[in-house]
Amino acid sequence: MTSTDQLSSTPPGFLARLNPVTPFLASILFTTPLLTTIDWGSALIGIGFTVLLILAARVSIMSVLRRTWPILFAAPFAGLSILLYGEPGGTIYWQWWIARISDQSIDLALGMSLRVLAIGVPTLVMVAGIEATRLADSLALVLKLPARFVLGALAGFRLFAVFVEDWTSLTQARRARGLGDDGKLRGFFTMAFALLVLALRRGGHLATAMEARAFGGGPRSWARSSRLGAIDWTFMAVALGAGIACIVMAMLMGTYHLVGSGFDQAI
Question: What Cα–Cα distance (Å) separates residue 188 from each residue in 15, 147, 170?
Answer without folding.
Answer: 39, 37, 11
